């Protein structure tokens, strides 16, 4: 059975093709989670496909719906009928309300009759009923409510009409009557973090006969409607991968790394603040652009203008790479961006712009977007696996707490990376110096030495292995030989 397109970006992917036609679906969520917007998109998508739509509203007025659509830049076409189901005048009469003959049965029956009347007049193929809360109140009992929903379901099923019912979950009791009746159930949730914008996510609770994508999926409501970001599953992106070794652009750095970096692998750059993690990652980006490839950088911790100016002072023309269309540089606000949306942006760079090198600077900022540490590890695992299977060289930076001595990372993701580069401060001859070493590489041999490096106007310069020192990684080394092969920092 082919699916009916929902009109919501990303939702068809989660539903494995959209809504099966001629079935009844439930879209539930608290007020403000985006139910009306999704329902409107569903009907507008039908109109684009040449299908008539009917929006039956018991809770909002016609003007409110049209104003809401206009806020997204939509205009309700003639093929989409908005039917405002208001109580009959006789039921609003004070004497009638006080009469012993007045019963909710009368209003429930009248409501159902009017729904059938407008349907018979228009014969639409897509119907939205907003919302079930009013029908639940009219029914007054769970038994009558279930019978009413079943009656609506069987009526529309005979007409081969796709029905989307909305429920705002405002009843005191958690009534799941419609769950058992509906062909599919989607729940929308809104989370309010202690700081930052609200986060919205959805989950498909049920879909009969369809292998949908389970779990939570982040979504946003923008001026163009709802956009859903399907949860990234790396196993769905297997394929042939070119795992050739590429140069870092610096022969000495290549020597330290055992010849360079392999495509389809991830590199973690660890070190305290100020050791040059971003600059080191940027050198890999510059090398990729020099090879004629496209690269992408996601900056969490620094303003883009300052980042470009700082890179220019080190001889790297970031703005020139952007202008040439070889670099996608995006600043990420962790307080505003959900993890799902971030993964979607990375996928766009890889699949649409063919980025072969991706830098995330840094995981400290990325962690701020995570509800808890374990979620960060799981997200990074899927994202890195996906990038590796796309043949992308990925570079991640993590700022460790402290400057010298024992240091700790905010989250341990070293086991996820194929290569781990460690940066350190150390003191020698009354100066603060920097050291670099490769402590892990899954994809081949690497140099096990510790080298000094210097950041200057020409970028990063590596020195000879510090063979005459012991304790460099602790920050305060001791001289174990006669010669000290240190870089000349007088001109730095």
Automatic annotation (TrEMBL):
SUPFAM superfamilies: P-loop containing nucleoside triphosphate hydrolases. Keywords: Hydrolase, Kinase, Phosphoprotein, Repeat, Transferase. Its EC number is 2.7.11.1. It comes from the Bacteria. Pfam families: ATPase. Transmembrane segments: none annotated. Residues 2-242, 244-476 form the KaiC domain. This is non-specific serine/threonine protein kinase. It comes from Novosphingobium anseongense.
């Amino acid at each position: 059975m082919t699916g009916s397109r929902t009109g919501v970006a990303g939702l068809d992917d989660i539903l494995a093709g959209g809504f099966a036609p001629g079935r009844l679906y439930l879209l539930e969520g608290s007020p403000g989670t985006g139910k009306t917007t999704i329902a409107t998109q569903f009907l507008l998508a039908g109109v684009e496909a040449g299908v008539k739509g009917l929006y039956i509203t018991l809770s909002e007025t016609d003007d409110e719906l049209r104003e809401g659509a206009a806020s997204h830049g939509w205009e309700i076409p003639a093929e989409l009928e908005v039917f405002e189901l208001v109580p009959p005048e006789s039921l609003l009469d004070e004497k009638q309300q006080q009469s012993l003959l007045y019963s909710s049965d009368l209003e429930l029956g009248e409501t159902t009759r009017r729904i059938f009347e407008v349907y018979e007049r228009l014969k639409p193929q897509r119907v939205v009923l907003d919302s079930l809360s009013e029908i639940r109140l009219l029914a007054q009992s769970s038994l009558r409510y279930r019978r009413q929903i079943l009656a609506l379901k069987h009526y529309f099923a005979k007409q081969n009409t796709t029905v989307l019912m909305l429920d705002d979950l405002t009843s005191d009791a958690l009534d799941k009557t419609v769950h058992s009746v509906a062909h599919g159930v989607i729940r929308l949730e809104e989370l309010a973090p202690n700081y930052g914008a609200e986060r919205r996510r959805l989950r498909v609770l049920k879909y009969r006969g369809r292998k949908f994508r389970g779990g939570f999926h982040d979504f946003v409501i923008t001026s163009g409607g709802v956009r859903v970001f399907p949860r990234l599953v790396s196993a769905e992106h297997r394929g042939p991968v070119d795992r050739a070794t590429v140069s870092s652009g610096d022969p000495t750095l290549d020597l330290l790394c055992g010849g360079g970096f392999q495509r389809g692998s991830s590199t973690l750059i660890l070190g305290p603040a100020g050791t040059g993690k971003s600059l080191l990652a940027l050198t890999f980006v510059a090398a990729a652009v020099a090879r004629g490839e496209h690269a992408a950088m996601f900056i969490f911790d620094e303003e883009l203008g300052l980042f470009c100016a700082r890179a220019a002072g080190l001889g790297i023309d970031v703005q020139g790479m952007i202008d040439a269309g070889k670099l996608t540089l995006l600043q990420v606000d962790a307080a505003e961006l959900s993890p799902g949306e971030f993964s979607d942006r990375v996928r766009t760079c890889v699949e649409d712009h063919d980025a072969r090198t991706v830098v995330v600077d840094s995981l400290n900022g990325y962690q701020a977007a995570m509800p808890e540490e374990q979620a960060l590890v799981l997200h990074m695992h899927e994202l890195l696996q996906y990038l590796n299977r796309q043949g992308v060289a990925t570079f991640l930076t993590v700022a460790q707490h402290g400057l010298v001595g024992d240091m700790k990372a905010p989250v341990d993701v070293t086991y996820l990376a194929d290569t781990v580069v460690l940066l350190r401060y150390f003191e020698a001859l009354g100066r603060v110096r920097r050291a670099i070493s490769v402590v892990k590489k899954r994809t081949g041999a690497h140099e096990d030495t510790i080298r000094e490096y210097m950041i200057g106007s020409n970028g990063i310069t590596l020195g000879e292995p510090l063979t005459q020192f012991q304790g460099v990684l602790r920050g305060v080394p001791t001289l174990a030989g006669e010669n000290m092969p240190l870089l000349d920092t007088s001109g730095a």
